[in-house]
Input
Amino acid sequence: MKAPVGIGIIGGGMIAQIAHLPFYLSDDRCDVRCIAEERPSLKAVLADSVGRQKVVEDHEELLSDPEISAVIVSAPRPATGSLTLACLQAGKHVLAEKPMAHTTEQARQLVGAAKAKELVYAVGYMKRFDPGLEAARSLFEEFVADGRLGPLLSARFYDYSKSYAVPPPPHARPKESRKKRFSSWPTAPAWLPEELSDEYAWFVNAGSHDVNLLNWFFPEGVSLISAFGSGKGVVSAMFEGRGCPIHLDVTKTEAGRWLEGAEFLFERGRLAVSIPSPMSVGEVSRVIVDDLSGEGTEITKPEKAVWSFEAQARGFLDVLTNGTSPRTSGVDGLADLELIETMWKDIVSKS
Output
């Protein structure tokens, strides 16, 4: 029997509480040895889960623990890159919440640090673990390969969601502000005009999920045709991949429900995916196939719907214990940021 993997978690906020901690605590392949969180109200809640002795205020204590071999980084977005680098430099494998960083320069530094020490570096794009999206991607590859629906004509990825639209699972909110601040990295590249920096940071946070899915469905790469940014919460772009146009639309819209998905149009049919809110526990993406029969066929849902966050945690432990590859590696995350910067350079050139 292999010894359990020693796990540390940096940050004890909502995502750490609902999307990471429960699944690592319930998996015999690992031992949650330490959580770094300094806010007293959250420390008390975390102590109830893991024991008071395992909650520390300074993440440096976690990094110096030789029994911890892997770290989950769930901290404020501007600090994710600097904390990830500190973990990698300390010789720890990392699963970092998205976005991994905000610029390609930052991302290359992180990828280089992981490569230099031969460490696992995964980025938390949990939607790649959604069983519905996995099924859709498999069907997409089949349809492209066997031609049963004819040639691929166009594709679209859309995200029209401003809020979660459903209540998150129960969690504790901090009653006080942080006293200590993590070291932060810039949230926009130096070449970006200052007046666009907030819009860029929003897109890197929200839209990077959709860019990550676009790159997952088109792993051979895509080329930018044109990008548009309104400065008011609207970013659209058109790419070319596999000889067809690919549309990407990300908009700050509140419609009372989560609106995100993708569709792929073939000469004789369509493959469509409707993605649930990240907070919809137990829901998976709906997949519809339309063909010349005129009746859309919904792909059968799995008997047990596994929340994508849970599947992501299990997947990270698979990587650590079985040597499989991360679903989204640091290299993949870098490719996402490269595409995002290409889009925004085009937006800037038109402003």
